Amino acid sequence: MAKPATDMSTISTDELLKLDNQLCFPLYACSKEVVRRYTPYLDALNLTYTQYLVMMALWEHESLSVGELGELLYLDSGTLTPLLKKMEEKGYVKRCRSAADERRVNVELTDAGATLKERAREVPLAMGQCVNIDSEEAAELVLLLRKVLVNVRES
Fold it and tell me: Within 10 Å of residue 78's Cβ, how many Cβ atoms?
């Protein structure tokens, strides 16, 4: 793979449109492949990848409003509502209106959702072996991706 040009203003339009000169393509392809590799582990937990993200957020915070969950996971309520409904049907979460503010819907783990955490502990370890980068590279990659995410959202 060719090294992307650092000063995009100095290269031709044809060069700009090459896949090797895109940041978006390796991000997209990598994300797709990593999520694909999660599938067998998550199938065993009866979770989709997005549901797994919700569960990790709730394992960390125990209870979040739908709005807080959306902010944390970069998901809108149109995506979260059907997702949470399916997770509620599976018995992993429960949704309830806030007593303090009827407009606010909170999402909490059920006992089954909390128990699922034990079975999920193997997933990050298995995926770490699949990705096969050392902890320093992983930390650097996470920092760079968070920087890209913040920059894109702010632009």
Answer: 9
